[in-house]
Each structure stands twice: as structure tokens, then as C-alpha cells.
């Protein structure tokens, strides 16, 4: 009897992969494109171009995707039950923000098995800001019985530009939610699937990447790499500025954005290695932000070229 | 044009107004509640609807609510008298209307024979009485309520639809506006007003029709929302006390937290959770910071004041029958405490001083080096301060303690605990120091050395803590200025104003003798001698001193309530020793009201002007009794010498008020001098002698306060 109870308890709550499936299904039914994680290291789902670039401009869009997010300074060699070098976000962007977006969100919690009336769910002020992306928004952290499970943000600015329309961003912290659902104390005890644990899949990664970013990375090499990536991004951005009209349309700004993301990750690696000071930190962040803002501005210009007469003529000429 | 309100009695009723929102930050609600009332009242006044009406407002996380009782349903008619041309112009000698009369009547749209005449001081004028009929309150509200919403101010508003759309603190999702039981129709952004409110997200219905405030309050209560903040607070307090009593525990009182949870919940209920007593090995400061700051839990104490392994959480639900919520909160707290415990253990694997080398990697400012460098500078300055104090008679000042505390003060910056709970910097170092057997004097000094964080905050509790705090702040201000980080307008990233105010506050509150110039000199010397060896030019040093003195002026004015001119007068006479400056200020304030004082300040102003205007060659001579021609100047000279003797004696005893009284008594002699004596006499020797007399007077008697600064347009 007791053994059976234990098995029951063990099976409680969605497995990690089922959680992803449920959320994907829920948001797909609400008109979201299901995208894939970005294949460049990012610190958060917001940095995926499906968020950062899609929220610019007027075109409506709805997208949902999983984004493994690397934060080298948060690594704990796999020894802390709650802290990870790489955690998993489930990211949703709704553009423009629907009126009943909070209700949508709460329904998504029901969809993953949380009975709303039995829990203390609240929206507590937490305005989100990413200094390296020149982005900020107004919103909350959603607390479930005191546990932060989601960042809920109405984007106001991105890449230093005011947004119009406003997008809403929902960022679910999947490990925390899964641990809550399954009632486990350590993230490594989570059931990823029915018979494989999170620890079996991810522990090595946590150990080795913590070891790399805290103890074994070559700070000098990382710094040099940062300079190279930044220079390349700057070169391309200057190239874009020199072009006019239709030549701009195929210009590789998406590649520039990748370089910008690389700089951001390299900065995080330097930070984790403890080689940058508070002031230098601010200066490096400003450099990444400058890249991000210039990229966003160029991207916006590429999407909707200025309607100045001379340029309009030129582009028509090409189309004809 | 004259206007008068016609007395008509009209029916009155009630307005119910609710701005329904997504969750508004709890910290902003009390001010918003008050502002909603004042803004609404302002518009009602402007529309002549305020008389006899009463506005009451309420706030909860998802709503700002106003009830206006006894509001007129219609504005009173306004009778306006429009004046036309003078009768003498409008009618000719035979009484026939001229063009002026005809065009006035035309313009006002009435027949000539309806025109009246009114007597004015300038003669008889044509006049027309116009009645502007009062509009319905409903129509007026439809216009002003959107403006009321718009006029509420927030630290950072947002838009939720698009740039050109409405702004507010959080998206507005519904608006209730019901006057006399009927809806008032308008829209704000994408929301149309109506008569439906919404209950609690999980305890109530999503749509509730309401006709008046009474029904509104009752229906909401039945649907999980307590509209009145005072009732929510009372419910929380009652349940906190009851739960505490049940388990024989005492609430760790926290007024700020109580405010917060009152505005964080629409239907607050208190639940009690517990944690593993093993966590109680952690210091109370850490346990409370975790519970309060992160989770908004109240801590509870056993009899005797020790923390109990329990917490009280305020949840936004009516109950927790299955204990699921409690279990969830306990689980979160367990993880947080486990983190803290892990940090505590890891950090203590080595001694606090062992973190010193790690501070080399924590940069203070790129040009000012690491915290390791800062520690050496702070040590030097703290030693200097302690030795100054000792030499000036403060027997408890202890140089080795100051040195040790300064050495350990910043070590906790490299600990895991402070990396996680940055608000505990200093505190953690102090706790570790105590746990590792440092003397209480040193451990407390480390604990306190960031104090005071603001002008309201306490200063370090012991002298060593004061020395380290002063040294740390002097180094920050001097160092940052030296490399060009100077606060401008709203930009003060290194909080140098706060640091300088902290210096002032410590000196004044602890009443310690400290020359600002010498202390700054010690900080500058430390900057020059220790890595990275920053030179501070003299002009910069002067600028830094002025900056600190400017903050001292601010503290004297804004916090101690001295007048602008009093501070100027006293500072002009010297401000290097702030404790002394405060004593002089107190004396000046005390004597200011006496009858001789204000007239004397006028004379001193006059003296300063005369001396300023006099050519250089005329000044700087000594007074020679042989050239004192008139009684008035001889008397002034004699009175002055006697007064100077007395003033010196009083000053030596620190009796500034009595010294000022002696000076004030010179008033008659000074007045007579100005009546009888012409300063700029023909004869050069006499003229120079008189200027010398005045110069001496000014020099002798402005060492406590320069009276020429008192009064006039400068006394802002």
C-alpha cells in the first residue's frame, strides 16, 4: 500500500516534456506560431530574434517557443537544487497585446494542471529591463504560493525605440513550474519523461559549463573574441548606413544581430570569470546596448524604408 | 461682466466611479487613492458641483474607487450680466438709440426694449442679463471623468495598446460610472464605461451589475473583494494577532510590511507556516530579510524575543482548506533558507580577513582601483580620524580598532551571502566578524559602517563605526571628485550627495570634533599615497570641501530647520567645525528675535557696503585714537574694545548666545555713529581712521556669524 502511494506520488504532476507539450498546445490553439529555440547562446527568451526583432514595427504576430537560457554567473556546478547555468524558458509573444491576456495566461496555468482557486496566485509589480538590449517593459512577476513562476511584461521599448503596438511577453520558468507540479525539492529530481530525470539529462552540462565559466575559461581570449565580434558587427552596421533604398532590403542585419548576441554571451562569460569591475561592467554593457540599439534601428528602417521622395522613386525603379 | 449664481434647489444623488485595472503596484495605491480624491474634487469645484458634495475614495489592487455623496444632478443656472456701451453713447440727446445700442442688442441677440441700465461708478451703462442654464451632471461627468483618469500621476506610466493610445499605471480593463443609479457613458482609451464591476479573480464573479455604492460594496464583499483598505488592514491585523496568540507567539511588528500587504490583496487572509528549527541557527537579520524582503512574510517571536520557526503569510484568498498554499509557501521558504544557510556555511570556511585578496577583483571604480585599494585608503583615514579624536580628548577613540574595522569592513562584498542579499552588505560582515571572535567594538563597527543610508537613518552605534563610516565616505567623495565624477542635477551614480550628508550627520549627531578641511586633507593624502595613487590638485580639493559644506548647509536648512540666511551668516564666519557651527547657529536663532538684533544686521550690511566701495588704498590701516574726532566714534571705539574683550571670553567658554548679546548691545553706539559721523570725511587721515574703525568692527564681530548676511531678499 505504502509503496503504491509512493509510486502515485512519484507520478504526480506533468513530466517536464509534457509541460512543454501542454503549453505549446495551449498557445498554438490561441494562434501562436510554434517556433524553435534560437541556436546562438542567449541569456533569455527575449533575446531570440522572434521576440527582439518581431516586436518592432506594426505587423501583428503571435509566437511561442522554448528557449534554453544560459546565465554563466548563475551556474552552481550542479550542486544547488534551484540554480542553474542553463535554465529553460517558455516564451510567448502576443502582438498586439490582447485585452484578456491575463485571463489567457491564467487559463494556461489551468491547462498544465494548476487549480486556480486552490492557490495563492498574484501579480506583483516587477518591471523588466534589459540594459544590454535597450529594452524595458511594465509588468509583474507572477507568484504561485510565493514562488515566482512567470515574468509578465508589456514591452514599452526595444532597442531604444518606442514600440507601437505594444506586445505582451510571457516568460514561464519551466524548471520551477515543473518542480511545483511534481512536488520535488531539487530540479535534478524532476521527471523529464516518464523514466528519465532532469539530472540524468542535464547534470553533466551544469557541472562542466560551471567549471568552464568559473574556473577554466581564458578571460583574455574571451575578451579578444568580444572585440572581434563587436568590430564585425560595427563594420556591417556602418555598411548598412551607407546604403540607400532597395540595396538595404537584403542586407544581413540578422547576421549583425547574431554578432550582437555573441557579444552579450561573451560579456556574461567575462562577468562569471570575475574579471570585470563594476565600472568596466557598465561600459561593456553600454557597448552591447549600442550594438543592439543600432541593429534594432537599422532593422526597423529595413522593414519600412523612409518615404522620402527620392528613395521612393529609386525603389519603384527597381521593382519595375 | 458680472456673474451670480441663482439659488435653485435641485435634487442630489450619488456617483459611483471605479477605474478597474490589472494589478496596480501596491506601493503606489495609497497615494493614488488620495490623489483620485483631490483631482475629482478639483474638477467638481471647476464645474460648480462641489458645494455640499462629499468625495470618498478607496483602493485595492485592481481598482481605484470614488464615491461622491450628495452631488447635484444638475448645475445651478448661471446668471451673467453683460455690460454694453455707456448710456450716454448708446442714446442721443432726445433718447433715441444710436448705432452703439442697436449693435449691442444685435450682438446679445435680444430686442432693444429688453435692454436694462445699470449704475456703475463710471455712470450708467447698458446691460443684458443672460441666463446660462445649468448642464446635467451626467453630461459634465462624461467629460470630466476621462480627464480625472488622465490627470492621475504615476512614477512610470505605460501604454498597453499603442503609442497614441491612453496611458495609465497598468492597463485599464473596465470602468464603472453610475450616477443616481444610471450609467454615465464615456470611454477612456479602448474601454467604455458602464455599470458592471468585477469580483475577485478566483473568489468572485467576473461581471457584477451595480447601481450604487452600497450595493457595490456588498456585492464585492460577497465576491471576494474588500473595497475599504482600513477593513482589509483590520482583518489582517486581527488574524495576525489571533494566529500568534494561538501558538503563544508574538508578531515581529512591521508597519511597512502591513501597509504593503493591505494593498497587495483584495481579500487578505493570514496563514501560518513553519520551517525547520535548524534554520534558526542563522542570524535573525538574515532570516527576517529573507522572509520579509523576498516573501513578504511576517516573522514571529517566542517569549524573550527569539525568532520562532514559524511565519505568517498574507494570502489573497479566503482560506486554504487543503493546506496547499501553506505547503507551497513553506517549500519556497525552505529553498530560500537553504540557500542562505549554504552561503553562511561556505562563507565561514575562511575568515573574514581572508576575503581581502578577493577584493582585488572587485572594482570600486576603474580609475580608483579595486575595493582592496579602497580598504587601504579607508584604513589610513580611519586611523587618522581616531587619532585626531584621541588627541582632542575623546578617550574611547582607539586607533587599532578603527584600523581593524576598516580592514574588515568591505570583506563581505566577496562573500556569497552579500552577492545574494546585497541589502545585507556590512551586516553580514559584522555578523561574520562577531562569529569569528573579533571584539564587539570592531564587529559592530563593520556591521554599521554603511550607516547612515539616509538623513532619517541611524548613525553607527559606536565611535569606531563612526570613524570607519566617515573614512569610507570621505574616500568615496574625494576619490570620485578627483577622477571627475561630480554629481550633476539628477545624476549622482555614486550617491556622493548621500555620502557627504552622511559625513555631516555623523559629525553632528555624535557631536565629534572634526575639521572638515583636515579630514579631507587626510583623505586626499591617502589617495595620493596608496594605489592607484591619484593626485588631487588644490583647486579640486577646494571644490570637494565646498561640496561637503554645501551638503552641510542643506542638512542645517532642511533637516535642522535653520533659515537660509542664518546658515549663510554662520558659514561665512567659518564652517570647518560643524559642531561649532551648529552651536553658533543655535545662538543666532535664539537671539534673532531680540530688539537690537535686526537693526544691527542692517548696520552691518551698511558697513560691508561702505568697505566694499572704499578704494583699496584707504583700507587696511590701523585705528589711531588721535584721529578719533567725534564723541560718537570715540564711544564706538571704546564700546567695541570692551565688547571685543567680553566676546572673546564668552566664545572661549562656548557661550555663543551671550557673546551675541554683547554684540547686539553695540547697536546704540553703532546707530549713533552713523547719525553723527560722516565716514568719508574730507581729511584723509580721519577718513582712513573711520574706515579702519569699521573694518575692525566687522572683523571682530563676524566670527560667530556674519550679520551682514541676515535678512533682506536672501532669507529664502
Task: Quickly list its features.
heterodimer; A: alpha+beta; BirA Bifunctional Protein, domain 2; Methane Monooxygenase Hydroxylase, Chain G, domain 1; nine-stranded mixed β-sheet; 10 helices; 46% helix; 19% strand; globular; B: alpha+beta; 5 domains; four-stranded antiparallel β-sheet; 25 helices; 21 strands
What does this 3D model show about the protein?
The complex is a heterodimer of chains A (320) and B (716). Chain A starts with a helix and ends with a helix. Chain A has 320 residues and is α+β, with helices and mostly antiparallel strands. Chain A has two domains: 2-213, BirA Bifunctional Protein, domain 2, CATH 3.30.930.10; 217-306, Up-down Bundle (Methane Monooxygenase Hydroxylase, Chain G, domain 1). Chain A is built from ten helices and nine strands. Chain B is of the alpha+beta class and 716 residues long. The two termini of chain B are 39 Å apart. In chain B, α6 (229-246) packs across α7. Helices cover 48% and strands 15% of the residues of chain B. Chain B is flat. In chain B, strands 2, 3, 4, 10, 11, 12 and 13 form a seven-stranded mixed beta sheet that branches. In chain B, strands 1-5-7-6 form a four-stranded antiparallel beta sheet. A four-stranded antiparallel beta sheet of chain B has the order 16-18-19-17, with helices on both faces. At the A-B interface, β4, β6, β7 and α9 of A face β8, α9 and β20 of B.
Helix and strand content put the structural class of chain B at alpha+beta
Poorly predicted regions of chain B are 1-8
- Major sheet description of chain B: 7 strands, mixed
Biggest sheet features of chain A: 9 strands, mixed
Helical fraction of chain B: 40-55%
Strand content of chain A: 15-25%
Regions of chain A with pLDDT < 50 over 5+ consecutive residues? 309-320
- Based on CA atoms alone, the radius of gyration of chain B comes out at 36 Å
- The total domain count of chain B is 5
- How far apart are the termini of chain A? 79 Å
Shape of chain A: globular
* Broad structural category of chain A: alpha+beta
H/E element order of chain A: HHEHEEHEEEEEEHHHHHH
CATH class of the largest domain in chain B: Mainly Alpha
Count of DSSP-assigned helices of chain A: 10
- How many domains of chain A, as an integer? 2
Amino acid at each position: 500500500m505504502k509503496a503504491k502511494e509512493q509510486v502515485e506520488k512519484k507520478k504526480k504532476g506533468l513530466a517536464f516534456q509534457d509541460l512543454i507539450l501542454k503549453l505549446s498546445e495551449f498557445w498554438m490553439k490561441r494562434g501562436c506560431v510554434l517556433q524553435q529555440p534560437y541556436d546562438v547562446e542567449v541569456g533569455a527568451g527575449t533575446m531570440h530574434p522572434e521576440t527582439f526583432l518581431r516586436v518592432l514595427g506594426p505587423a501583428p504576430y503571435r509566437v511561442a517557443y522554448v528557449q534554453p537560457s544560459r546565465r554563466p554567473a548563475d551556474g552552481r556546478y550542479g550542486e544547488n537544487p534551484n540554480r542553474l547555468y542553463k535554465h529553460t524558458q517558455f516564451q510567448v509573444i502576443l502582438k498586439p497585446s490582447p485585452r484578456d491576456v491575463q485571463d489567457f495566461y491564467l487559463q494556461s496555468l489551468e491547462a498544465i494542471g494548476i487549480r486556480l482557486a486552490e492557490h495563492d496566485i498574484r501579480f506583483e509589480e516587477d518591471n523588466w529591463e534589459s540594459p544590454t538590449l535597450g529594452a524595458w517593459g511594465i509588468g509583474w512577476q507572477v507568484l504561485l504560493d510565493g514562488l515566482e513562476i512567470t515574468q509578465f511584461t508589456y514591452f514599452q521599448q526595444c532597442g531604444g525605440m518606442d514600440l507601437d503596438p505594444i506586445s505582451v511577453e510571457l516568460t514561464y520558468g519551466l524548471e520551477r513550474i515543473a518542480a511545483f507540479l511534481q512536488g520535488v525539492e531539487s530540479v535534478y529530481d524532476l521527471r523529464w519523461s516518464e523514466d528519465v530525470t532532469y539530472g540524468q539529462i542535464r547534470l553533466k552540462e551544469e557541472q562542466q559549463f560551471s567549471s568552464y565559466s568559473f574556473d577554466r575559461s581564458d578571460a583574455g581570449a574571451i575578451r579578444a573574441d568580444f572585440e572581434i565580434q563587436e568590430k564585425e558587427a560595427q563594420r556591417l552596421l556602418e555598411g548598412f548606413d551607407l546604403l540607400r533604398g532597395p540595396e538595404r532590403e537584403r542586407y544581413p542585419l540578422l547576421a549583425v544581430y547574431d554578432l550582437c548576441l555573441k557579444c552579450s554571451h561573451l560579456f556574461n562569460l567575462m562577468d562569471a570569470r570575475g574579471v570585470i569591475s563594476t565600472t568596466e561592467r557598465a561600459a561593456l554593457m553600454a557597448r552591447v546596448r549600442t550594438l543592439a540599439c543600432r541593429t534594432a534601428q537599422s532593422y526597423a528602417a529595413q522593414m519600412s524604408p523612409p518615404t522620402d521622395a527620392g528613395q521612393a522613386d529609386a525603389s519603384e525603379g527597381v521593382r519595375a | 461682466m458680472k456673474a451670480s449664481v441663482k439659488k435653485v434647489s435641485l435634487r442630489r444623488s450619488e456617483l459611483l466611479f471605479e477605474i478597474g485595472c490589472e494589478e496596480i503596484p501596491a506601493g503606489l495605491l495609497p497615494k493614488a487613492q488620495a490623489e483620485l480624491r483631490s483631482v475629482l474634487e478639483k474638477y467638481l469645484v471647476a464645474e460648480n458641483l462641489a458645494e455640499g458634495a462629499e468625495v470618498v475614495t478607496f483602493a485595492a489592487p485592481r481598482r481605484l474607487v470614488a464615491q461622491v455623496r450628495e452631488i447635484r444632478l444638475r448645475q445651478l443656472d448661471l446668471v451673467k450680466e453683460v455690460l454694453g456701451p455707456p448710456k450716454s453713447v448708446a442714446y442721443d440727446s432726445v433718447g433715441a438709440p444710436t448705432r452703439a445700442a442697436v449693435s449691442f442688442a444685435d450682438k446679445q441677440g435680444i430686442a432693444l426694449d429688453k435692454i436694462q441700465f445699470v449704475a456703475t461708478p463710471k455712470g450708467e451703462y447698458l446691460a443684458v442679463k443672460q441666463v446660462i442654464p445649468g448642464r446635467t451632471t451626467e453630461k459634465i461627468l462624461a467629460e470630466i471623468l476621462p480627464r480625472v483618469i488622465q490627470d492621475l500621476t504615476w512614477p512610470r506610466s505605460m501604454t498597453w495598446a499603442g503609442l497614441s493610445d491612453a496611458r495609465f499605471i497598468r492597463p485599464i480593463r473596465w470602468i464603472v460610472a453610475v450616477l443616481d443609479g444610471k450609467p454615465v457613458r464615456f470611454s477612456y482609451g479602448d474601454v467604455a464605461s458602464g455599470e458592471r464591476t468585477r469580483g475577485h479573480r478566483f473568489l468572485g464573479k467576473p461581471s457584477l451589475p451595480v447601481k450604487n455604492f452600497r450595493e457595490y460594496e456588498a456585492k464585492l464583499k460577497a465576491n471576494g473583494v474588500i473595497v475599504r483598505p482600513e477593513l482589509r488592514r483590520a482583518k489582517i491585523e486581527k488574524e495576525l494577532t489571533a494566529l500568534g496568540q494561538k501558538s503563544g507567539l508574538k508578531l515581529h511588528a512591521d508597519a511597512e510590511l502591513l501597509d504593503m500587504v493591505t494593498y497587495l490583496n483584495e481579500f487578505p487572509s493570514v496563514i501560518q507556516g513553519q520551517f525547520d528549527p535548524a534554520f534558526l541557527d542563522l542570524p535573525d537579520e538574515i532570516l527576517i530579510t529573507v522572509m520579509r524582503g523576498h516573501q513578504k512574510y511576517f516573522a514571529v517571536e517566542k517569549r524573550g524575543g527569539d525568532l520562532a520557526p514559524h511565519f505568517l503569510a498574507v494570502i489573497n484568498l479566503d482560506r486554504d482548506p487543503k493546506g496547499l498554499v501553506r505547503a507551497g509557501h513553506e517549500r519556497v521558504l525552505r529553498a530560500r533558507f537553504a540557500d542562505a544557510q549554504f552561503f553562511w556555511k561556505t562563507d565561514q570556511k575562511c575568515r573574514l580577513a581572508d576575503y581581502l585578496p578577493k577584493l582585488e577583483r572587485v572594482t570600486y571604480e576603474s580609475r580608483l582601483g579595486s575595493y582592496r585599494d579602497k580598504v587601504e585608503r579607508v584604513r589610513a583615514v580611519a586611523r587618522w580620524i581616531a587619532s585626531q579624536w584621541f588627541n582632542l580628548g575623546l578617550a574611547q577613540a582607539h586607533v587599532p580598532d578603527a584600523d581593524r574595522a576598516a580592514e574588515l569592513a568591505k570583506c563581505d562584498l566577496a562573500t556569497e551571502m552579500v552577492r545574494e542579499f546585497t541589502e545585507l552588505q556590512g551586516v553580514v560582515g559584522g555578523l561574520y566578524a562577531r562569529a569569528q571572535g573579533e571584539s564587539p567594538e570592531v564587529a559592530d563597527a563593520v556591521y554599521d559602517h554603511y550607516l547612515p543610508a539616509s538623513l532619517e537613518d541611524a548613525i553607527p552605534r559606536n565611535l569606531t563605526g563612526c570613524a570607519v563610516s566617515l573614512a569610507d565616505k570621505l574616500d568615496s567623495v574625494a576619490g570620485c571628485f578627483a577622477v571627475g565624477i561630480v554629481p550633476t542635477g539628477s545624476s549622482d551614480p555614486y550617491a556622493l550627495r548621500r555620502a557627504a550628508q552622511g559625513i555631516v550627520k555623523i559629525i553632528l549627531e555624535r557631536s565629534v570634533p572634526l575639521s572638515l578641511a583636515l579630514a579631507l586633507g587626510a583623505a586626499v593624502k591617502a589617495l595620493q599615497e596608496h594605489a592607484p595613487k591619484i593626485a588631487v590638485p588644490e583647486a579640486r580639493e577646494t571644490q570637494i570641501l565646498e561640496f561637503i559644506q554645501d551638503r552641510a548647509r542643506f542638512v542645517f536648512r532642511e533637516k535642522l530647520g535653520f533659515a537660509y540666511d542664518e546658515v549663510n551668516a554662520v558659514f561665512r564666519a567659518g564652517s570647518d567645525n560643524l559642531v561649532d557651527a551648529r552651536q553658533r547657529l543655535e545662538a543666532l536663532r535664539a537671539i534673532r528675535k531680540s530688539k537690537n538684533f535686526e537693526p544691527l544686521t542692517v548696520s552691518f550690511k551698511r558697513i560691508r557696503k561702505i568697505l566694499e566701495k572704499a578704494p583699496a588704498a584707504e583700507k587696511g590701516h590701523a585705528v589711531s585714537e588721535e584721529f578719533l574726532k567725534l564723541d560718537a566714534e570715540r564711544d564706538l571705539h571704546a564700546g567695541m574694545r570692551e565688547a571685543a574683550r567680553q566676546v572673546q571670553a564668552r566664545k572661549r567658554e562656548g557661550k555663543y548666545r551671550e557673546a551675541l548679546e554683547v554684540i547686539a548691545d553695540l547697536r546704540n553706539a553703532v546707530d549713533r555713529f552713523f547719525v553723527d559721523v560722516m565716514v568719508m570725511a574730507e581729511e584723509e587721515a580721519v577718513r582712513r581712521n573711520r574706515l579702519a574703525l569699521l573694518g575692525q568692527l566687522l572683523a571682530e564681530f563676524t566670527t560667530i556669524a556674519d550679520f551682514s548676511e541676515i535678512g533682506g531678499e536672501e532669507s529664502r
